[in-house]
Design brief:
The protein is mainly β and about 130 residues long. It has no helices and eleven strands.
Length: about 130
């Protein structure tokens, strides 16, 4: 069974930075793309960023492009999300997600993902 364990997050001031990590277990990590989503109170869960199985392809929501950076370390079975130039509207619970298909495409779509982490809170104060 695939398990995703997130860490990082917390409280930051506007303009600050935070780092998130997600460690995966239960299957060959390096064969799968990975994604990050977020959900603010009272809102739907939205795509934030994704990375292809080999790290060559990275994809971002327009709202975070140029501020957030996704990366992965296949040797550590871990995907990272660096959050820079934070804004109050970035406040949300951030979820790591893994698809059920290897080498998959369509990593922007929530429907591509089968496994989800428990979520980690990011709060940005103005």
């Amino acid at each position: 069974q695939v398990q995703l364990v997130e860490s990082g997050g917390g409280l930051a001031q506007a303009g600050g930075s935070l780092g998130l990590s997600c460690r995966a277990s239960g299957r060959t990590f390096s064969s799968y793309g990975m994604g990050w989503f977020r959900q603010a109170p009272g809102k739907e869960r939205d795509f934030v960023a994704a990375i292809s199985w080999n790290g060559v392809g990275t994809y971002y929501a327009d709202s975070v492009k140029g501020r957030f950076a996704i990366s992965r370390d296949n040797a550590k079975n871990t995907v990272y999300l660096q959050l820079n130039s934070l804004k109050p509207e970035d406040t949300a619970v951030y979820y790591c997600a893994a698809p059920d298909q290897p080498y998959g495409l369509g990593l922007r779509r929530m429907t591509a993902y089968k496994y989800w982490g428990q979520g980690t809170q990011v709060t940005v104060s103005s």
